[in-house]
Design goal:
The protein is mainly α and 101 residues long. Helix content is 54%, strand content 0%. Helix 2 runs antiparallel to helix 3.
């Protein structure tokens, strides 16, 4: 497109950006992570827990340092609890005997 009057000098691509900015923003990812974590306590915790952790981590801008939004922290913590409980529940049902429930 640069040859048809649409030069790249006016709006150059920034150096740190390697993907398009049309995806969900960080606040939306944090809220999606919290919803997945809460829903994971009731159904499909082994799937929704890691999804909540991933969404929370992406909402924290893929770093553990710096300013972190509250929904992202909640999503990571609840997703981790959800995943651990699902693993314990699966391990309890796989052992011979009564299990957890």
């Amino acid at each position: 497109m640069a040859g048809f009057g649409h030069g790249t000098r006016r709006h150059p691509r920034s150096r740190g950006r390697m993907w398009s900015r049309s995806g969900p923003d960080r606040a939306t990812l944090g809220i999606i992570g919290v919803i997945c974590a809460i829903a994971g306590f009731f159904v499909l915790g082994i799937i929704l827990g890691p999804v909540a952790i991933l969404c929370g981590w992406l909402a924290m801008n893929r770093t553990w340092s710096g300013a972190r939004p509250v929904p992202a922290i909640i999503a990571v913590v609840l997703g981790a609890i959800d995943t651990v409980l699902a693993i314990i529940w699966l391990a309890g049902t796989a052992t011979p005997g009564i299990g957890l429930f």
